[in-house]
Known about the structure:
heterodimer, A: alpha+beta, SH3 type barrels, 3 helices, 22% helix, disordered C terminus, B: alpha/beta, Rossmann fold, 3 domains, six-stranded mixed β-sheet, 9 strands, elongated, disordered N terminus
Amino acid sequence: MRVSNSELATRVSNAAGGNAVETLVSAPSGVALRVSAVEAGSAASLLSEGIGPGVEVSVERKLALGGPVIVRLGGARLALARSIAATVQVEGVDNAHGPAPG
Amino acid sequence: MRHFKSSASHCQPGASHRPADVGLPVIALVGRPNVGKSTLFGFASGTYAETVNAPGTTVGAEPRLVRVGDSRAYLVDLPGTLSLDDRPTGDEPFWRQLLEIHPDAILVVGDASDLRRHLPIALACRDLGLPVVFAANLSDEAEARGIEVDTGRLSQLLVMPVHLTTGLTGRGVVAALRDAVALALKHRAFLAGAAPRGTAPARVYGPAAELQIEKLTRSMASAHSLGAAALDLSGQGLGILVDDRAVSARGAATLQLGEALEAVRWRIADEWAQQVERRREVPLRLADRVGIWSTSPWPGLPIFAGVSAIVFGLMMWIGGTMSVALTGAWNATASPVLTTAIHAAVPQPVIAAGLLWGLDGGILALLSVGIPYILTFYVLLAALEDSGYLTSAAVLTDRLFNTMGLSGRVAIPLLAASGCNVPAIYGTRVLPTRRERVLGAFLVTMTPCSARSAGVGAAVAPFAGPLAALGAFGLIAAITFASGLAANAIVPGRQPALVLELAPIRRPIAHLVVRKAWRRFSDFVRTAAPIMIVGSCALGLLYESGWIWGATAVLDPVVKGWLGLPSVAGLALVFAFLRKELALQLLVALAVIQLGAGAASLGSIMSPAQLFVYAIVTSVSIPCVATLSALRGEFGWRTTLAICASTLGIALAAGGLLARLLGVV
């Protein structure tokens, strides 16, 4: 089933009861997400890989049994331990209403 | 590195009383891991430094003389780093490594298809007050991904020359270097007072950050006039570097602000990347699809199993074939000549025989184990590294190794360990922290290498059956796993959570793979060969002189009393320290000496249960002398002795318990 990006974005913001904060662990895979905040403890190490507030990312896959979360940003792919991924708060990116790229 | 430091200090332009034309300009290569820096460096200098399609494997700085037109310069390849504050080699921050070589210009190598993540370090380098050239590398891959870079615009934004490069084919490399050399020479002229400073880039960090930088810069500059001794504002030696003119006062200020500026740099990089990149939709490349597959359970796990089987199979097959060929050739040609020569030169038969153990036996061991298996493994490892597959395997197996305090990156060294522990010890360098490396090396030494596996098989299978041999391997695996769990609980500290960039899958380039494997292999031969030869000599003298029998009295309480084995087995265990592959043959040889020709079969010396205990203890106990020397080289004596004592303790504990369970004692 193909779902449009804006629909998915709505799903992201609605998931887990409306206002609950989504993280890279709880967000669905394959959806464009924007990082809204990163917990202080892991901010430096994530920033040096390019994950900081405002950055667009998507979750490619969450490996089973509590394995790492694979995150895409731009052309790069990063594997993050769940404990780290859980410190990255994200929100849905709604292409229809978001700022035009470039 | 040390050698270079001294030569660098001769040619460094820092001190103003030194003429600027002494020595050649130094150009540093800086970039994130896995951006093809070493390949570009190799093309530029005509030799190939170690390249790895996995983060953080260029160790130490290596200068190479390059010629561009009429000019010459030293090019220094530095380890890949995430930022100037990052510690890629674990000890000192990268900026210190960079400034210690006193570069006259920096060539920043970035990924053309991922500028967003590669521009921040260019910005940071630009702040240092040194000329910078940006190489948008891997431009062929970027094009294949449908990404075009507007180099003209990027050059305007960065205020530095920008070149599209492909390190492998050399595209754009010479042009980038020419710019870097020209800027380096200009910078030297400026330091010598013969030319004005180049254009200073616009202040881009915003009023608040710029004010902070300005304040710090002023305090750095005024400290500068007080002399180097009073300079150490931050305790980091920045002042001295300013005084040496290795970095500008503003550069030192931005270094001191460090992480505070990083967030701003990333924001700017994001903005600029969007301005200069043009992306068109192209179908996903096969290599990128393989990358995605290899990190999914399906088909990732079968791929992992297949790759492991191929690596292991090729190592055993090629290694085995080479081993037979080399052993045959040695025995047919060099060995008889050597034997005759030594017997002619050394009149004392005991010493001659001892020497023969070392030279004939030691070199034969190198030919039968070292060269075939280790060289083969190094070639396979290099191919795997350059293919980018290692990081995928690490992610896939991460969860399993987490239980032992290790990241999935340890999977490949452990696989190597089942061939030979020595390259596996060096292979633990792929692990990010010392704690992980020590834990990884501990598991490596517990893993039976091919010589030990052969020993276990030969001791158990003929007398207790193939199922018992399989059981022995299962037991060793269980002991290793349990020890890993225990070590993780005992060794202080904890494992840092995984943050790993997945390397893109690339086709390994044959000549680069062979060069890298050969380089590592010759390192191994240089460190291990002397130890193997001297160790064999010492063992030979002990054996030939008969002194070895004196050891039985010391060993008997443990060997006989605790393990329930004949005392001759204790001697074989001692010998196994030097030569694991000879442990069984020696056991038979010693038994024949002690008990007569009737003891020529293992079955007549020990019962099947005793052989089982013996096999477990030999396999798990102390690593062989070559592994020991590798451990010492990597971790120092304290850790090495701790690892050896642990494995010996575990082997004796397991052996003693087993002896009681099996009714041997």
